[in-house]
Specification:
By secondary structure, the chain is mostly helical. Helices cover 88% and strands 0% of the residues. Helix 1 packs antiparallel against helix 2, helix 1 packs antiparallel against helix 4 and helix 3 packs antiparallel against helix 4. Keywords: Membrane, Transmembrane, Transmembrane helix.
């Protein structure tokens, strides 16, 4: 499978993870309608960032910026929700573990793989 196809698959997985996580967080806070609207907003921003990245081949900045912002916002909101509860530290860790394993770690690993594939693709071009 070519590197370009692998990059597209990785980006698709990152986008799906972000849409799910942001939509879930917003719907938990404000309701289902706002969660759906926020998912559409995430898609729009990510399409715009993909367009900007495509127009500027030398830099992945416009791709990484919104993904990092959405990831940081998700982590802050989830951390805030867990830390403001009146429970023990063990219960907080238990509550954060699925979030970290199911969202935080996969996003970081996929971004590292995407960045390396992009560097390799750009290095192969004349």
């Amino acid at each position: 499978m070519p590197d370009k196809t692998l990059r597209y698959l990785i980006v698709s997985v990152i986008v799906l993870l972000l849409i799910f996580q942001i939509g879930t967080l917003i719907s938990d806070l404000f309701g289902m309608v706002w969660g759906a609207l926020s998912a559409f907003a995430v898609v729009a921003v990510l399409f715009l960032s993909a367009y900007l990245t495509k127009t500027r081949r030398e830099s992945s900045f416009w791709f990484f910026l919104p993904i990092l912002l959405f990831t940081v916002v998700s982590i802050v909101l989830m951390g805030w929700n867990v830390m403001t509860e009146d429970v023990s530290w063990f219960e907080r860790v238990v509550r954060l573990t699925p979030f970290i394993i199911g969202f935080g770690a996969p996003i970081v690993l996929l971004l590292v793989v995407y960045h390396e594939l992009r560097k390799r693709t750009l290095d192969d071009q004349p």
